[in-house]
Design a protein that fits this description.
By secondary structure, the chain is an alpha+beta fold. It is built from six helices and 13 strands. Bound molecules: benzoic acid and fe (iii) ion.
Length: 290
């Protein structure tokens, strides 16, 4: 076939996908072609505008490094990450809600024991982070691996700093009652990295780049779906305008004041300290798409 024009090119491209071996890949490729062509028909970009789009995506790739993932940021800022999250996490009632992973997760964070301090003195005032992990029938989940990471009082993650050492990040296991506790620091609200193409996009769209203050959790346990979530500080700014659309009411927690003594998760506290406390409920594992 030859002589393609605005009216027949979509069908021609779709026909070329007929030999795609995997049905799922064919489904995805066909939908991509259809939606992309529909977008171009609707927007009718000039050659110059299309070149700007290509340059934007090229620069988005070029700024990526081991510690910066501008494509995830783009997906986050366009609400796509939360859409994918919503589609994939229609968990049964009672399970803790999920939110976006974000680009600052580190797969091999240091393993710590309950009670250890994951913050550095310069990270800001200490905060107790404690929780209990349960399944949907209310039974404690022992031996769950709880990854915790958060920004410091200036709104920076360890991986964004010059000193390439871990802080505000640790991986702890729950005890037989499903409890864990750590010392971290009180995180601040922060702007997502805005010195690249995504920051420029936000500027053009008249949007601020901030996320409300939060602590990230990834909780993995046998026979359970891995939970990726945050706790948002109830006192934070930006709860209603999170740049990545990640806030859910059920994930907002107050920072409480804990007095000296033993806490519900077994922490020994010697002075009055700020704390975040939460029960996390893991959904039972389900079968993945074939
Ligand atoms: C974060 O919370 O770490 C994050 C999420 C999305 C984009 C940037 C940062
Ligand atoms: Fe974060």
């Amino acid at each position: 076939m030859r002589n393609f024009n605005e009216h027949n090119i979509t069908e021609a491209v779709l026909a070329r996908l007929n030999g795609t071996s995997s049905p799922r890949t064919k489904e995805i490729s066909s939908a991509l072609v259809q939606h992309l062509h529909a977008f171009v028909r609707e927007v009718r970009p000039s050659q110059d505008e299309w070149q700007q789009a290509i340059t934007f995506l090229t620069r988005t790739g070029q700024i990526c490094s081991d510690t910066r993932q501008e494509f995830i940021l783009l997906s986050d800022a366009l609400g796509v990450s939360m859409l994918v999250d919503a589609i994939n996490h229609e968990f049964p009632g009672g399970a803790t809600e999920t939110t976006v992973l974000g680009p600052f997760y580190v797969a091999d964070a240091p393993e710590v024991l309950s009670g250890e301090n994951i913050a550095k003195p310069e990270d800001g005032p200490l905060m107790l982070i404690e929780g209990r992990v349960l399944d949907t029938s209310g039974e404690p989940v022992a031996g769950a691996i709880v990854d915790v990471w958060h920004a410091d009082a200036d709104g920076y993650y360890d991986v964004q700093k010059e000193a390439k050492s871990y802080s505000g990040r640790g991986r702890v296991r729950t005890d037989a009652q499903g409890n864990f506790w750590l010392w971290g620091s009180v995180p601040a609200a922060y702007p997502i990295p805005a010195d690249g193409p995504v920051g420029e996009m936000l500027g053009v769209q008249g949007r601020h780049p901030y996320r409300p203050a939060h602590v990230h959790f990834m909780i993995a346990a046998e026979d359970c779906e891995t939970l990726v979530t945050h706790l948002f500080l109830a006192s934070s700014d930006y709860l209603d305008s999170d740049v990545v659309f990640g806030v859910k009411d059920s994930l907002i927690e107050p920072v409480i004041e804990v007095r000296p003594g033993k806490t519900p998760s077994g922490a020994d506290v010697e002075a009055t300290v700020p704390a975040m406390r939460r029960e996390f409920v893991l959904a039972p594992v389900r079968h993945q798409r074939e």
